[in-house]
Amino acid sequence: MGKVIAIDGPSGAGKSTIARMLAERLGFTYLDTGALYRAVAFLFLREGITPEDDDKALEVILRHAEIRFEQGQVILNGKDVSSEIRTPEVGHYSSVFSARKVVRDLLLDVQRNASSDHDIVAEGRDTTTVVFQDAYKKFYMDASMGERVRRRHCQLEEMGIHATWAEAEKDVRERDERDRGRDIAPLTRAKDAIIIETTGKSIEQILDALMEAVRVHP
Fold it and tell me: Could you give the domains of the chain?
């Protein structure tokens, strides 16, 4: 089992960008857990599954699904779907389906297996509290609502999707409600996680804070 640096936090806190850069700086493998949930949502949408379907219907689809994260690519049933899963629709449904136990049970093993032969940096909503409870280092990244909405708005614009500020805020708030309110593995801060506040800070400042925490608490 390799070393695991786990990062949790709400949508728009900057986890994905920082986790990727931290992994590169440390020579670790980056595990994008959100991409795994997107792959499941993509599969469900392709197979006509909706949030109204019961767990048995989801199990039928997942029973024959193989999902892996390899060298930055998301592999679904032998095919690289890294680009196809990056749509707002898939992003929305990945958040919705992530509340289902059958989905979380499947991806729990996928995530843990990723650390069997590699040192990894993993980010998500329950990486410190559920997936990697014994992580070598735990961080909880957060930012103000205004900052998180701004980042989400910019992200949508970069994807070529025009969205008003109100629409971006609605998206962030709905994700928060689903992440924090779900019965299974809700988003919460682990007691032993180091808090990293990202509001008003540059990427380099945030990255430096994490690197300093790793050095000070070896």
Answer: 4-208 (3.40.50.300)
